[in-house]
Write a structure and sequence with these properties.
about 500 residues, alpha/beta, Alkaline Phosphatase, subunit A, 9-stranded mixed beta sheet, two-stranded antiparallel sheet, 14 helices
Length: about 500
């Protein structure tokens, strides 16, 4: 049977999609999300406790203003670097005892760990400083600042492969799509410098390495938070931020006029829809314009004294190296960036302990120590939290054959590993937690990833249980539904 033609107005109403409906509804989800976003920027009142202070800030006095996270992609071997175990050296070449293996899950490269041979550390350990911290000869510069560091030796995690484990550390979830730590801080604390992002990321990899890790964008993503809170990646190039420079032939006044016109159009659409992503786009255009001046000044290190450059090592003169990125991290911290995330790949030594581990240590040891010393000299270490560590540790047993030393390696190990922290309210000169006699399991004061995250937020004056964001009907937080602040390491 023929059907009557539908009234165009009725057809249009039926075709309105859900996203458009909520955007056009002034009291709908779009308006609520915009109110939340504006609240974080001081344009509307956020949820507050008594006294006008946001609930997630009120109970805690912050000890740190900023974080520099030296994330070592690929998982440094705690057995070689920080966790001295004389018993492991004595048992070199013997099978790992079955009592350590029950119920343990390893990567597919290990498969069944039964019968795997224990491997002694490659280099000797020595105690350093008044704290007597054990550090390998592979890290002489880190050893020299041992009294400024807090070694957390009972770290443990849940993931056994790199991307899920890195995502777990940085976002609290193994699957991509959750906001990362820097994004949470940008959302919760705002920015201290309107000319630079609150969250900056830089990546590097040792030259010639065969075990570099991929840097996925979700390692610094904002997840379901407004996208203005995602990390801004600085490249190791003459033009560190993509699309920041004016196109050829466009003078700065013309650029300003263009942005003003785009801004007016976006504001009209924002009033119509209430979509917070439009507010984000307006803010990003303005930030990019201001960064045209601030970023070149930041990345020009010609004003740094020679003694400071020497402290970071020869690679500081090469853009894109870990050393240069450490120096830029200090310069960003000076200028008000609250979360700087350096990611250095190359630690995944399945078959290269006797070769590439030495290169990794050489490339990262001196700059890491220099950053701590530099901050301390400038009076910034007390309120800057520096973190050094990877996504898990390495197995005490060998991957490969004992008869083929050039190909010695260690597999992924989530059950025990070490990170270190400095400044920002953390107790210096201490080692917290311990592993068993072969560095296999965390047995004394174990620290889970969510405990670590809760502690970092606490040092910044944030109650990890209160800093939440409602998404798809659930209130999410960095620590998921877990996490306990490690009070023993807080000064």
């Amino acid at each position: 049977m023929p059907t009557e033609s539908m009234d165009p107005r009725t057809e249009q109403q039926l075709s309105v999609n859900r996203r458009y409906f909520f955007g056009k509804t002034a009291t709908g989800i779009g308006g609520a999300a915009l109110a939340s976003l504006l609240g974080r920027e001081g344009l509307a009142a956020p949820p507050q406790a008594a006294g006008g202070v946001p609930a997630y800030l009120r109970p805690i006095a912050p000890k740190a203003k900023r974080v520099i996270y030296l994330f070592q992609n690929g998982a440094p071997t705690h057995v070689e670097l920080f966790d001295y175990k004389p018993k492991l050296a004595k048992l070199h070449g013997t099978p790992v005892p079955d009592s350590y293996l029950g119920g343990k899950r390893f990567s597919t490269m290990t498969g069944d760990p039964k019968g795997k041979k224990l491997l002694a550390p490659l280099e000797p350990f020595h105690q350093h400083g008044q704290s007597g911290a054990w550090v390998s000869e592979l890290l002489p510069h880190t050893a020299a600042i041992a009294d400024d560091l807090c070694f957390v030796k009972g770290m443990h995690t849940e993931a056994v492969n790199h991307a899920p484990a890195i995502s777990f550390f940085l976002s609290g979830g193994q699957l991509p799509g959750r906001p990362t730590m820097g994004a949470w801080l940008s959302y919760g604390l705002g920015s201290m410098n309107e000319n630079l992002p609150a969250f900056v990321v830089m990546t590097s990899v040792s030259k010639g390495t065969t075990c570099g890790q991929i840097f996925y964008d979700f390692y610094w993503g904002s997840g379901f938070l407004p996208t203005r809170h995602q990390g801004v990646k600085f490249r190791g190039a003459d033009d560190p931020v993509l699309y920041l420079s004016n196109p050829a032939g466009m003078a700065p006044p013309m650029r300003r006029e263009l942005l003003d016109d785009i801004g007016r159009l976006n504001e009209i659409k924002l009033r119509e829809t209430g979509d917070p992503e439009i507010a984000t786009r307006i803010a990003q255009y303005e930030m990019a314009y201001r960064m045209q001046t601030s970023v070149p000044e930041l990345t020009d290190i010609s004003d740094e004294p020679a003694e400071v450059l020497d402290m970071y090592g020869p690679q500081v003169h090469e853009p894109g190296t870990f050393a240069r990125n450490c120096l830029l991290a200090r310069r960003l911290a000076e200028r008000g960036t609250q979360f700087v995330q350096l990611m250095h790949a190359g630690w995944d030594q399945h078959r290269s302990l006797t070769t590439e581990l030495y290169t990794q240590c050489k490339d990262t040891d001196q700059p890491s120590a220099a950053l701590v010393k530099d901050l301390k000299m400038r009076g910034m270490l007390d309120d800057t939290l520096v973190i050094w560590g990877g996504e898990f540790g390495r197995t005490p047993f060998i991957q490969g054959s004992l008869d083929n030393r050039p190909k010695w390696g260690r597999d992924h190990h989530p059950y025990a590993f070490t990170i270190w922290m400095a400044g920002g309210g953390v107790k210096p000169g201490m080692s917290y937690g311990a592993t068993d006699e072969i560095a296999f399991n965390a047995v004394e004061n174990p620290v889970h990833v969510h405990d670590f995250q809760a502690t970092v937020l606490h040092l910044l004056g944030i109650d990890h249980e209160q800093l939440t964001y409602k998404f798809q009907g659930r209130h999410f937080r960095l620590t998921d539904v877990h996490g306990k602040v490690v009070d023993d390491i807080i000064g």
